[in-house]
Amino acid sequence: MADKRPIRTDIPHSARIWNYWLGGGDYYEADRIAGEAAVAQYPEIKAIAMQSRRFLIRSVRYLAAEAGIRQFLDIGTGLPTMQNTHEVAQSAASDSKIVYVDNDPLVLAHARALLVNTTDEGVTTYLEADFHRPEVILADSRHVLNFSKPIAIMFIGVLGHARSYEEVRRVVDTTMDGVPSGSYLVLCDGATDDKAYVRMCENYAKTGGDPYIPRSSTEITGIFDGLELVEPGVVPIDHWRTDGAARGVRGVSAWGGVGRKP
């Protein structure tokens, strides 16, 4: 599929800044400047980036190794980095199918090159789509995924780009309504419990990049309404299925959880 939009190198982009924070090399000068400014304002942002990736790894490993899930729809993939969804899932279950979804042309270019199967039995592919259009994502992913069997829906640090909480709920509810009983929601996002983090997000919006809006822990928990939460529920992401040695003293300013559709 041809990319519909050019890559803008003069405006910072969250996926590329995330890559910069994680020590990658897939970013431009505008991203480095915005990333360094964010770290100067809120040094803990690098910990949030790293803990978000570790939360993804733990949640995918739990779903593939313990919950028996073999299909993953990773929406808002971001740039490939350490232990991507397909690598974690297929290491636990070689026949896992993963569909990555993103609408950024740089992400898609890297997806073509790097997001490839790690096993002969599995499937790894990508869709060019915007998370604001869940109906399109569901329709297109049917070409790969079997919607008569459970699917893990993943939103890792992306729904802050929705303009309102109502839009967040619409996107998630529409997506979960489209998958069968036994499917799972994996979600985490920045939270408002640290005012310095909120100010950093407000300052980022002034750079011209797509604004990111943190939600309260109550709002993030509310996204899981109607689902059966996996222990320990919706918590700071460095407290989700970790031991004490892996946890921050007070938890990073990002909350997440995993919920099963009854």
Automatic annotation (TrEMBL):
Enzyme class per UniProt: transferase
Record keyword Signal present: no
Domain of life: Bacteria
EC id: 2.1.1.-
Keywords annotated in UniProt: Methyltransferase, Transferase
Gene Ontology BP terms: methylation
Pfam families: Methyltransf_19
GO molecular function, one term: methyltransferase activity
Protein name in the entry: SAM-dependent methyltransferase
